[in-house]
Fold:
Amino acid sequence: MDVDKNPVFPMRRPLLTSLSAVPLVTAITALPRASMAAGAMPANWYDADSKKIQREIASRSGTKIVLLGTGGGPVIGRSRRQTSVLMLHDEDAYMLDFGLGAVQQFARTGTSFSQVRSLFLTLQRPDHTTDYGPFLLQGWIHGLNSSVQAYGPPGLTTMTGGYIKAMKHTIEFWSESFDIPPLKPIATQEFTRGGFVMQDGTVRVTSALVKHPPVVPAFGYRFDFKDRSVAFSGDTAPTQSMINLAKGADVLIHEAMYVPAMGVSMRDDAKRQKVGFDAVVEHMIADHTPVEDVGKIAQAAGVKELVLYHLAPPGSHLTDEDWIAPAAKYFNGKIVVGRDLMMI
Ligand SMILES: [Zn+2]
Structure:
């Protein structure tokens, strides 16, 4: 391609030339190719919270679940980021959902993109999908394997190819800068019913349709690792299908809504979204699970541990006890209130 004739890149050559004089860029491009490919960064590039989760991950063996974002809904700029989860077993990594911030949170765990085996989506909502494309784009230059596959509801294939098409010029720029082949769409598998999703040497994955109208389909997932089984609700109102999916699991990670605090939160949302308070209330009640009901679901499923995530409202004004007490009325096992960068 003749970049000088392409109006999208009028400054391309001069820009590349000038960038090469910037120390940071020099430092990045001077990193050994193997280091770039593995996504490894020098330890002193990380902040204290990142170093803490990295130490925790390194200190434990077996299956580890790292909550990257635990806030419910499309909120931004609050103490909890949007929904995303990383699962690790030995050197294999799996991602579930990609709310805004997922790429950055993933990187903070020190996990290499080259460890990632499969990606999963629970539903087509921006608070679960915003960082899906950026994960592919950033992963591409940091060692994400092109054999990685993504699984989820219809729209996944369009989102994968469409994002890469939209970022064509950006991709061409990095392809030349880093001297690597352009990013291509990864393989995707869409499904509309619950059941078996995939299996590799590390994990067996199944799904169940959950209840989140008007979004159809919306899925809960179950990951059976060799040493541990974990079920995720995604976004759902109370549903028997989640009890069935989580039956006997070691851990149930379920969305939760603290109803007494929803009034203020929903009034704020209604003002911002211009849809009206009643409509927001109707949506929340029809689509999400009060934390009391989460306790009932965990008890009925007979899980050992319940972790609350996708918290609504996602602000930091609620204490752990506020969340735990209503669920503990109905569930006898261990209850954990999820936090960003918490390892389960
Ligand atoms: Zn959500």
